[in-house]
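S.,

Sequence below, as promised.
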Amino acid sequence: MSIDTIMNAITRHEKELIRLEKLMADELKKEADKRKKISDLERQIRQTKSQSTFKTKANQIQRLENEIAAIIKKKAEINKKVADRRSKLVAENQKLNKEQSNVQKKEKMEQEKVRKSYEAKINSLTNQIESSLVLDRQNIDSVLPGTSSDIPEHDVFISHASEDKEEFVRELAETLTNVYGLNVWYDEFSIKWGDSLRTVIDKGLSNSRYGVVVISRNFIRKGWTNYELDGLFQIEMTKGKTILPIWHDITKDEVQQFSPSLAGRKALNTAMFTIDEIAQELKNLLD
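The prediction came back faster than expected:
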C-alpha cells in the first residue's frame, strides 16, 4: 500500500471523527435543553393546585424523558463509532510509520548502491589512468630516448571547469605565472593546436608538484575534470600530499555529496580569499 493511499485514509478518518464529535456536541446540547425543561416543569407542578395542569405537566415531563432516553441511546451509538474510528486511525498511523520506514530503508539501499557503483567507477578509472601513465612514459622514452628528463616539472597543475575561466581561473593562472613566477600547467598555456588532450593532460598531471582543484558546481558535472581528479588521487597515493582544493561558488554539502574525502580537506574558498591571497598561500607552500 502506498503512502499516499494511507495518508488519504488517515485524512478520511480524521474528518469523520470531527463530524462525529460535532454530532455528539449537538446531542449533549439537546439533552441539556430537555433536562432544563423538565426542571422547569417540575417546579411548575410543585406550585400548581390544578389537577388538570398537574396531569398536563406530567405528560410533558414523560415525553421529554423519552426523548432524553433516545438521545442517550444515540450518544452511545456515536461513542461506539468514535471508538471504531479512533481504532482505525491508530491502525492507519501504524501502517504509515511502517511504510515510511520501508521507504527510508529502500532509499538507504539505493544510496549505498550508488556509492558502491561510484567507488567501482573510481577504481576502474584509477587503474586506467595508472596504466595510461605508465604506457605514455614508456612511449616517450622509446621514441625520444633521454628526453624524459627534459620535460619541465610544473609547480602546479590547475584542474577546473571551463565555465569558471572568466570569473576566476584565468586570472589565478596569470597571477601565479606573472606575479609569483610559478611554472603553471593551465590548459590555455599548455595545450597547443593538434595536441592529444588525454596525453597532454596525463603528462601535466604526472609532472606537477601539486594539483590545484577548483571545485565548483560546473566542476562536479564535467567528465574531464573528474578524469583529472582521479589522476591526482592516484598520484597522491604514491607521492603523498598533492591535491590542493579551492571551493568556488559551492557549499560544503554539495562538496560532501560529490566527494566526502575532498570535503574533509582544508580548502581555500573564493568567497573568503582574493585571488592574490590564494596565490600567495600557494607560493608560501612551494617555498
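Residues 3-115 form one domain.

Coffee later?
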